[in-house]
Amino acid sequence: GHEVSSATLSIAGAAVTPAKFTASLSYTVSAPLADGDHTIAATSADRAGNSGSVSGTFRLDATPPSIASITNIAPQQVITGPLTVTATATDSGSGVARIELRRDGQTVLNLLPPAFSDTWSVSSTNDGPYSLTARAVDAAGNTGPVSAPIPIIVNKNQLAVTITAPLANLRTRKPVDVAATVNEPVKRVEF
Fold first, then answer.
1. How many CA atoms lie within 13 A of 167 on its CB side?
2. Residue 60 forms beta bridges with which residues?
3. What DSSP letter does each residue of 31-60 carry, written as one string?
4. Which position has the higher pLDDT, 32 or 118?
5. pLDDT of the residue at 1
6. Under a CB-based contact definition with an 8 Å cutoff, are residues 49 and 6 in contact?
7. Are 35 and 62 in contact (CB under 8 A)?
8. Facing residues of 45 across strands?
9. Tens of pLDDT along 131-176?
10. CB 3.0–4.6 Å: which of 79, 131, 136, 144 could bond 149 by disulfide?
11. For residue 49, is pLDDT > 90?
């Protein structure tokens, strides 16, 4: 059987004192490890004196990615239909896994590497003003800061005005009331 007392553990070449169990070792670092690659090695022996060892490396990435930037949408841009969105961000640790395109704080599209570009259909977005932001997430799950908002206007339905009075081709010498209908809310209709 396994000789629990013979087990050793080291991190980055430095011996540490793990908790020893029948089939495993456990160790919690007392201070955070630096970002980057780290080695870990363990040894153990059985009661007959046969020993075994295992080692490996792991990468620690606790640093969030940079602030993301939407590169192809201008402030006050009017969006009338599907739009290709491109963004950039950097991460020196595990790399950027995705950039979230956010409309008024809600993610509407994930831009994936390597291009970080995709089409936003806007089909589920009502006409009106919105703010777009972006946020990068790295492969370790760290979330970067939200970018500054870019104000946009979604206008999928073009405004249509229909004159409902007077009747078409009406000839009269008297004053008439003029009326119109519109296909979406407006502030006013001028004649």
1. 3
2. 36
3. SPPPSEEEEEEEEEEETTS-EEEEEEEEEE
4. 118
5. 66
6. no
7. yes
8. 3, 51
9. 999 999 999 999 999 999 999 999 988 888 988 999 888 888 999 9
10. 131
11. no
